[in-house]
What does this fold into?
Amino acid sequence: MDLAFIPSPSTGVVHLGPIPLRGYAFCIIIGVFIGVWLGNKRWIQRGGRSGTVADIAVWAVPFGLVGGRLYHVITTYEPYFGEGGHPLNAFKVWEGGLGIWGAVALGAVGAWIGCRRRGIPLPAYMDALAPGLALGQAIGRWGNWFNQELYGRATDLPWALKISDDPSIGRVGGTYHPTFLYESLWCIGVALLVIWADKRFKLGHGRAFALYVASYCAGRAWIEYMRVDEAHHILGLRLNVWTALIGLVVSVVYIVVSAKKIPGREEVVEPGALEAAADDTGTGKSGAESKKGDAGTTKAAPKTVKGAPKAAGSGEESVADGAAKLTKDAGSGSRSGKDS
It folds into this structure.
């Protein structure tokens, strides 16, 4: 008898009248908002403008959703195009089935388009977005909990996930490893790691993003190995395990090579952002200096008034003094010309 376990929701859909509200979709949407919010804060810290991350996300998010769905459908085509499959179900994203590999790959294409339109280097943008992506994944993984999918091997651990029986889809009830929870917690750790490393080592030119990919892949490899849902295998390993291992190796190689070829961090990440900030700051200083200057002029006025009586002295003395000064200046000018 299981004394403790994590219960699964009895349903992943709540109907608000005729409108279905799906837990899976809510988790994805919340994850996107959190990712963009954190990415925006980091972009501003890097010297970019507020709102730029969201503007580019308008391109990246739709591309990412399409890429994630394409990866899932291509690598798990049987329910859609296999014997007895239903091709139209490939468009039912709300039922689950988004491959992170395709989402990141095609999402990067969308981000590249957005960055190109704004004249922004893609690596700098991806560096700012990296921890937000990991945090968004941590939240999005809870969508699998609502759909009762992507769990691991059977276990009686206190944190085991209770899965209900559903013969219509071949799901056997029981308690299993909550791989969705493992990956969610791992992604939170990845986000914290990237934030720390970026602050400590001033990562730039895509290296913060590469660190995110490498650390995520390291965790995904062992988490994927625990899963028991059907998947294609290559040389005895699940396809996603191989994908994770390849992503890990490529990311580490990129970090090492790019650190040697282009060390440091980009000084300018968004054209015009620093100038706009400088103009705003300069306007404030000019106003202060203007007030200071006006105050100085007002304060100096009494000196002119104070000196007036002296100038109004004897006319003969003034003429004599002036003549003596002119004579002295003339003599000085003659010597100066000779010396030169």
In short: The chain has eleven helices and six strands. The first strand starts at residue 13 and ends at 16. Residues 273-311 form the longest helix (39 residues). The CA atoms of residues 131 and 192 lie 7 Å apart.
